[in-house]
Amino acid sequence: MKINIFLFLIFFNFTYIFFSQETYAEYKIIDAPYCVNNKGEEVKFQNMKSKTSKITLGIAKKDGEGKPIIYRFNYNQSSNPLQMFIDYHECAHHQTGDLDKPHPPQNSFEHLMKESIADCIAAIRMKSDNINGRVYIKKALLELNKAMKYIGFDKSTIKSREDNILNCFNKNISLSAYIENIIKKNIDTKY
Ligand SMILES: [Zn+2]
């Protein structure tokens, strides 16, 4: 099964984990990208630090007042291209309206599809928003692959995720067209 990916979810459904093995490396945290959800609300970003964990991860959620937010954990532990990729990926969950729907069961097909789509949007945005997008995506993938290997994913899982990201990066489609398609499909299938 090709989409046996993205099993590294810990806290919530829309959690994404990246791990930097270079624990002594300290990176500058990039400015958050502009992000607007499917209802036109601006998404806030908040940097979080964990003293005990070196894991870099992003979480797309709604805050106590129902406003869209992305928590950025330990971004200083990963390179700028990977930070950017995580931001885009988490933003994608807000852009497609994932947070309006009930969470699909962990590792269900729907869940994996959502992760795959968020990766795809992140890859397309990496290209459309950056002159050096190809360099960034390569760096982000390198680090991501290392992290997945470290966590214990098998080669084929890592490869299929990388393939999906690269395919999307090379797609000849605009970011907005791709997202509109996804939103339309979600409405049609009501999942
Ligand atoms: Zn995700």
Walk me through the structure.
The protein is α+β, with helices and mostly antiparallel strands. The chain has one domain. The chain is built from 5 helices and 4 strands. A hairpin with a 5-residue loop joins strand 3 (55-62) and strand 4 (68-73). Helix 1 packs across helix 2, helix 2 packs across helix 4 and helix 2 (109-128) packs antiparallel against helix 5. The longest helix has 20 residues, at 109-128. The two termini are 21 Å apart. Zinc ion binds at residues 14, 16, 89, 93, 115, 118.
What is the string of SSEs from the N terminus onward?
Answer: EEEEHHHHH
- Range of helix content: 40-55%
Major β-sheet, in short?
A: 4 strands, mixed
User: What is the overall silhouette?
Assistant: globular
Bound molecules: zinc ion
For the termini, the CA-CA separation is 21 Å
